[in-house]
User: What shape does this take?
Amino acid sequence: MAVKIDKKIKGYSVITPDDKARETAAAAKAALTVAPVESPADNIVHMHERIERPEMLIGSTYKIKSPLVEHAFYVTINDIVLNQDTEHELRRPFEIFINSKSMEHFQWIVALTRIMSAVFRKGGDVTFIVDEMKAVFDPKGGYFKAGGVYMPSLVAELGSIVEDHMKSIGLLHDPEMSVHQRALIAEKRKQFEERSKKNSEVTATPTKSQSAALAQSQSAALAPSLSQSEGEGRGGVAFDSASEADTEIADNGSFPPGATMCHKCNTKALVLMDGCQTCLNCGYSKCG
Assistant: This one.
């Protein structure tokens, strides 16, 4: 068989049977070499704007009843599940809707929900939106939620709801208190409650002189010179004071009615203990 040579011959060598054996062994070794296995981390799907919306999403609906508006707001946050049925399964917020009978806020609510949904779909670290919303202050003043938590604005409460939702799906995590700190808060709260209970018992148990003064005042109150209208007026004042006390206790929730607002956790749980302002909610102490 003729072989056509197109290039200039610069050298030559003779292939021996040993050379053929070495080439065969090298080829067999290469065939047995296992290809590198692809890392499972390379197959993890992260949130990005090119992910299309599935036909069905799971989510949660939250209710906001603010004294700043007449009707309640209903906030629905839908989530998308990434890497479903794998060990890398992730649940991330995909869209948000806000509905209310109040039409005075319709424009900015629609704008806010569209912007927030776009941020969710963009991917990356979307937790920054919580801090931005919670930093919005109403020039007319904020309000206290049930439990004594201060909300500087309606937008801030929306941010608080988004924060709670992100915590529920594992996107945000609370800074965990140490066991010692939790025990210290529980001990401080117990001491304050016991001290308040003793003070109330002392106030409720009158001495002999106080009992005599009380009897004298009651007899004076029942004198004929006292008019019926004055009696009704005093009864009305006592009723209003009791109502205000009940309202204060209801506003503070589970914390003492005399507690003030803690600037760290925005909760009315700051009480004076041992000459130092101490928060019964987050453990903050002015004395360090």
